[in-house]
Amino acid sequence: MRITAGQFLGVFTALIFVAGGSGSRAQDLADPFKSFPAISSPQKMPKLNSFNPVVSEAEGIKAKDIRLEALLTEKGKPVEQGLTWRVFNPIPGSDGKLPLLATSEGGSAAFQLIPGEYFVNVAFGRAGATRKIRIAETGAVEKQVLVLDAGGVMLNAISGSDVRIPPGELSFSIFSADEKEDGERALVVADVKPGTVVRLNTGTYHVVSNYGSVNAVIRADIQIEAGKLTEATIQHRAAKLTLKLVSEPGGEAIADTAWSILTSSGDVVSESVGAFPTLVLAEGGYTAIARNKEKIFQRDFTVKAGVNTDVEVLLNDKGSQPAANGAAAAQD
Asked: For residues 277 and 271, is the Cβ–Cβ distance under 8 A?
């Protein structure tokens, strides 16, 4: 098993890739895909065994059998599951799109098609390959083998050095590596959950990891290799905090409190209302401002990666100010 370290484009963390080599569980992606949930093709087509698009057998032209196989790599074995085959007429319809003639899902496929030309597409998750084929009127039809040139990636993340992040608080989006003229990247797949295998064509992709919904965001470029499953673990430099306005240290949280969280430069990153709101913040210095009964209280605090904790702001009439007058004195 080979372990290599990739460099993040962000400023907080590192990314670890684990790509299986010969003899490992990632030698053939068909096996890992049986063990983990996978992002499948986004489109659902009607399942048809065959379809005669132009001429019927009654006119003297009979359909011929054709078999189709897909490989992850040129020298790999046929993929046995997770494939979606689509056969298109090469002549666009009135809407400018190629008419869909037949589909099949699973592994290798067999169709009955009349002689003519067709476009055949095979999808394996977000990976795919397309070929134009011709079925002659005479002679046997050769088996068509399409090479997907595809691999897979499974994403996960931790906070700090080894703190596990609950899957429900973590999501990933995968973009193309190339930027468009406007500086944006094309979205490949959004809202990928941890531990899910995403099947992709080989190449470089840009991954964005979100921990929570405030500012704990990490970006990285990853490389997908044909026939291999890449496991990437992202190390977020962030922590989960619970805010409390209390009359004394360790006291009960006071209800009906409005909260604002400011960065050390004064930018507002979060606003909420509640007795003890919980949020995830990137590592760094912040100010918590609590508003209750037309008075404002505040406290400066520091977020350390992986250290989940409570941030208590003390209710102190002497240190408070009317809301109209601005912030109150800091309390530690």
From this structure: no
203-238 residue pLDDT tens: 999 999 999 999 999 999 999 999 999 999 999 999
Helices (H) and strands (E) in the chain, counts: 1, 26
Tens-digit pLDDT profile for residues 164-184 = 999 999 999 999 999 888 889
pTM above 0.70, yes or no: yes
Tokens of 200: 């992709």
Asked if 157 contacts 235 with a C-beta cutoff of 8 angstroms, the reply is yes
> End-to-end CA distance of the chain, in Å?
49
- Cα–Cα distance measured from residue 203 to residue 187, given in angstroms and rounded to the nearest whole number: 15
Q: 229: helix, coil or strand?
A: strand
193 neighbors 167 (Cβ within 8 angstroms): yes
Any bridge partners for residue 124, and if so which? 83, 127
SS3 readout for 140-153: CCCCEEEECCEEEE
Report residue 290 as tokens. Answer: 């609590």
Give me the count of residues in the chain. 332
Report the alpha-carbon distance of residue 320 to residue 184 in Å, rounded.
45
